[in-house]
Amino acid sequence: MYLLPVKTFVNMETAEIIRSEIGKNRIREAFTLLEAAMQNANTKDLVIALTTLKADYNAIERKQIIGTVTEKDEVRRREIIYQLLTMVNALEEIATESPLPPADTNPTPLPSTKPVDPNDLIRIVVVSANPGDTFPLKLQEELKLITQAINNGEYRARFAQPDICYAAQFSDLLEALVRVRPHIVHFAGHGDDQGSVVLQDAVGGSLPLSTEQTRNLFQLVKSRAPLRTVVFNICHSAKQLELMSNVLDFVMGWEGEVADVKAQHFAENFYRTLANNQQEMDILYAYEIGRMSAQVLGGEANGIMHLNGLHTKK
To answer: Alpha-carbon distance 258 to 301, whole Å?
Structure first.
């Protein structure tokens, strides 16, 4: 099979825009542009490397906000910027020595090389928390499944890389919502029997965010972001649905406790469907596929997923 050179997907104009963003210290914008460029090319290894760099950069930025950045962090920040520039160069130059196809080959038409506007991409914030005083969950597996489902999708170019908040505190959640202006927010972790989302406090313990606090937060965020969907992939989260149903188009939550395996199957197949469906952002269809997969593949494990939202009132 003839592989088209990566250079045909990342033209000089796009590369210069990314370099310009880095030069202006607009590193987050550079990440977004580079992610979009990579999704149009056969560069899975680079995508994984970029995701790691972005996670490291976000961790340093969170330290900056609370004033705990160390000299080692500053060194790492400079390393990340240098590696970003290296990736831009690699995307311009890699595979340029690939042999040309035979004369009678009809290669697939090239995608447009028009620079990608980050504002046109579907943006997802994933909020992950497993405080030290709670039962350990396999959250890394869920986050990996979400990222892979999107990156392997036929329509992956529609999506920015998911912005993941690890060991999320409330300040991390606020920062991500304001900065990313997401279309979808996904919670992975714990919920208590009152329906609260359990985040992490400053010392690693639990910080519950009540149903009313969550409703008020997303009502505010929606006024400044294209937010349509919140996925509460946590226990007892169906209790969020009633309050949130008049705020967002789609709100999803689990009745009672939910086992890791069911949460993972729902997440993987929900995002896989979004990334492979020709109809953009068909949330209802993705929900039904995710719910069915959780029921069938999750076996006898606990958990029933429910959906509510403004779309049900039309």
So the answer is: 7
- Give the H/E segment covering residue 255: strand 250-255
- Cα separation, 94 vs 92, whole angstroms: 6
So what's the pLDDT on residue 4? 36
pLDDT at 81: 86
Contact 230, 216 (CB under 8 A): no
79-135 pLDDT, tens digit per residue, is 888 888 877 777 665 434 444 445 445 554 544 445 556 778 999 999 999 999 999
**pTM above the 0.70 mark?**
no
Q: Hey, where are the domains in the chain?
A: 6-93, 119-313
The CA R_g of the chain, rounded to the nearest whole Å, is 20
Range 119-313 classified under CATH 3.40.630.30? no
Distance CA 270, CA 148 (A): 12
40-46 — which CB contacts under 8 Å span 24+ positions? Answer: 40/9, 40/10, 40/111, 40/157, 41/6, 41/9, 41/10, 41/91, 42/3, 42/6, 43/6, 43/91, 43/94, 44/151, 46/87, 46/90, 46/91
Of all residues in the chain, what percent carry a pLDDT higher than 70? 83
Encoded tokens for 123: 């943006």
Secondary structure element (H or E) that encloses residue 252, with its range: strand 250-255
| CA-wise closest residue to 259 among 300, 288, 296, 307 | 300
